[in-house]
Amino acid sequence: MITKSNLRNVLKALGFSQSDSSFTKHFEKHNCGIRVDCSGETNTPFYPTDHCCVLRLLTVQAAPIEEQRIALQKIETYEAAITTAKSVLSACADKKKMILEK
User: Fold this and answer.
1) pTM
2) In a 3-state reduction of DSSP, which class is residue 35?
3) What is the pLDDT along the chain (102 residues), one digit of tens a residue?
4) How far apart are alpha carbons 84 and 11 in whole angstroms?
5) Both ends of the chain: CA-CA distance in Å?
C-alpha cells in the first residue's frame, strides 16, 4: 500500500527523478511527463506545458480513528431508523389503500 511515509520511495522505484521535494518522470513514447510536488505548498505557481502535468500532494487532517468509528456507528443507527421509518410509511400506505377500497 502506498502511504505518505513511503511515497518518495515508491516514486523512486517507479523511475522518477528527484529534485528537492519534486519528482519527475518523462514518458518518451507519449511525449509527456508527470511532476509530483511533495512540498505541500499549494500557492507555488506552476505553469504546465501541453505535454506535462503536476500532481500536488496535500496533507489532509483526518479525525482520529475512534472519532471515525463513533461517526460510523451514528450513521448506521440513522440508516436503521430510516429503514424502519420507510417500512412504517409503506404499511400506512397499504392500510390507507385498503380503507379507500372499502
Assistant:
1) 0.42
2) strand
3) 777 778 888 889 999 999 888 888 888 887 788 888 777 665 555 555 555 555 655 555 677 888 889 999 999 999 999 999 999 998 888 888 888 887
4) 49
5) 64
